[in-house]
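Translate sequence into C-alpha cells.
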Amino acid sequence: MTLMLTLSLLSVLVVSCLRAYTYGQDRWTIGEHLAFEHLRRYAGEGGESHYQQYLSTMAVPQGDEVARRQLQRARPDYARARQGLLAGGNAPADISSMIVLFRLFQNNPLMAHAIDVWSAADSLIDGIRSSGEQLHAQIASGHPNAQQVGVLMAQVEDLHRRVAPLEQDFGESIGTTSREIGLLLLVVLPLGFGLLVLAGITLSRAQLRRDERMAGALRGLAASLQHQATHDSLTGLTNRADFEVQLETAIAAGVRGEQQWWLLYFDLDQFKVINDTCGHAAGDQLIQKVAWLVRAQLKAGDAFARVGGDEFGVLLPRRDSGTALAVADNIRQQISGLRFQFRDRMFTVSASLGMLALDDTVPSVGDALSAADQACYLAKDNGRNRVQVYHPDDQEVQTRHGEMRWVERLHAALEADRFTLVAQEIRPVGARLDQAGPRIGYEMLLRMVGANGELIAPMAFIPAAERYGIMPRLDRWVIARVCRELARLRAGGGGVVPTCMVNLSGTSVCEPHLADYIADCLAQNRLAAAQLGFELTETAAVTNLAQASQLMTRLRAMGCPIALDDFGSGMSSFSYLRNLPIDFLKIDGAFIRKIDTDPIDYAMVETIHRIGGIMGVRTVAESVENESVLAALALIGVDFAQGFHISRPVPVEQIQLLSDREAPGSLPGHGPDSAELHRRAH
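Result follows.
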C-alpha cells in the first residue's frame, strides 16, 4: 500500500511538473512572438524604444535557454538555472520541481525528445538574436543600408517561421508524456483508494483553477497582441497597416460606384522645429494632442489613423464633396487654433491637408496614398495651413508627381552608385597673374548615369533633390569622389595636383557637420586643403547668410578656396558681399555672353571686377563661348575664364596634373583689338 501510495504521489507530482513545463512553453511562445513583432516594427519604423521592447521580450526564451544549458551539464549551477527559469516567466513555486524532473528524466524517453526539441528551438533563437544585433548596428549607425536591413529581416522571419513547428512538437511531446502517465495511473493504481482519489480530485481542481487563470491571461495577451498589431502605441489610433486595409475596402466601394468615399492625408507644418528645439518628448506630446483634437471632430464610422511620424490619414465614408471639404477645413481650423506649450515655450500649430475622392480613377492603395501625399505637399508649397483637393490633370500636381518619380530614381542611383563627374577647366585670362597667386584648375559637374548608360544633366534631377532633401547626400558623394580622384591623380606623379571646385547646395550649407566631413575626406586621401575648393551660389549664401558665413570661414581656415557662384543674379549682391569670406567671384553667365556687344553687360562686369579687386577677390567669368567675349574680359582685367570656348567638360578621369613650370598665361587665339572692343562696349 505504501509503495502504491508513493507511486501515486510521484505520478501526480510528475504530471504537475509536466504541466508546469506546458505553462513555461506558453510563456516561451508568447515571448518569442512578441520579440519578433517588436523587431519587425524596429526595422520598419526605427526608434530605440522598439528595440528595447524586443530585448525585454526576448529575455524570456533566452532565460529558458540558460536554464537548459546549465541543467544538461554534469555539474549544474543550480542558482543560474533557477535564475534562467525565473527570467523565462515560470512560476517560482514550480521551479524546484521542474529542475528535479529535468535532472531525473533528461535521458529517459519521457523527456529526452522534448529536451531535444527545446535545444533545437534555442538554436533558432540564437540566430534571431544575432540578426537582431546586426540590425540594431545598421539602424543605430544613422545611415542604414536598406538592402542589408531587408536581408536581416528576411533571415529573422525565416527563423521565426521555423520556430513554430518546434513549439508545437514540444507541446505535443509534453502532452503525450502526461497522457502516458495518466494511463499508468488508471491501469496500475487501484480505483478504490478513496484518499488518493480525493487527493487527486483536490489537486486536479487546484490545477484546473490555475489552468483557467492561465487561459484567461493568455486570452488577455492575445487580445493585447491583436491590439498592438492594428493600433499605434503613441496615440491609440489605428496604425498604417490596418488603415490601408480599410482604405482598400473604400477603394473597392468607389470602383463599384457606391456613394463616394474621401481620403484626407495631412501632416503638421514645421513639426521638425519643435523636435529640434524641445526634443522628441515635446513632439510626442503634440502628436497626442492633435490626435485627440481631430478624433473629437469625426463621426462614428470615420476611420482615423496615424500613418507616419507626424502624418495622419482620415477616411470619410459616404460624403458629398462639399461635406467632405467642410470636414477637412474644420480639422485644419481646429489644429491651427491649437497653442502648444512645452515648459516655458509656446508654439503655434498648423497642418497642410491633401484631399482625394476615392472613385474608379484610383486603382490601388498605393496610388491613393501617393496622390493624397502629393496634394498635401502642394498645400505646403502654396503657403501651408490649407486644404488642397487632388485633381489628376492639375499642372502643379503633375510637376510634383514627376519630381517624386525623380526621387525614386535618385535613391536607386545613390544605392547603385550610378553617378559620375565631368570636369570643366578654368584658365587664367591674360598673363597678369603672379606665380604665387591662387590658381584654379577645374569645376566638378555632376551627372546621373541612366539605365542605358546615357548621362543625365543635373537640371533634370536637381530640383527634385533640393525639394526632397537629397542634395546633402549628393554633395557628400561628390566631395568623396573628387577626393578619391585627386588622390589617384597624385599617385600618378609628374606634376602638380590641380585645384578642383565643388558646388555646395543651400541645404548642405546648413549642415552643422559638413566641414568635419570635408576635413575627414581630405585626411583619408592625404590631400592638401588647397586642392579642394567650394562654390556656393549667391542665392544660397544670402538665404542662409549666418550658416554660409560660418561654413566659409571654417573652410578657408582649413585652406580650401571659396567661390561665390552666379554673382550678380541676386538683388543684394554688393550689400552682402563684404560679410562673406571668399576668394573668387564667379560672374553670372547672363552678363558674360553678350559682353562684347552689350555696353550695359560690359559695364556690369567691369563694376563687379573693380569691386572684387578692391576687396582682394579674384573674378571668374562663366559661359565664355567665343574669342570676342574672351578678349573683352581681358580688356576689363577679369582674372579667370570658364566656358565651352575655354574647354568642354571631360570625364573626371581625364583631368591632368599641372606642370611644375606651368604658369597662368594668355590663351591662344586672336580677337578684336582693344580699341575696337572699347568702342563697341561704350
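Note: The longest strand covers residues 261-268.
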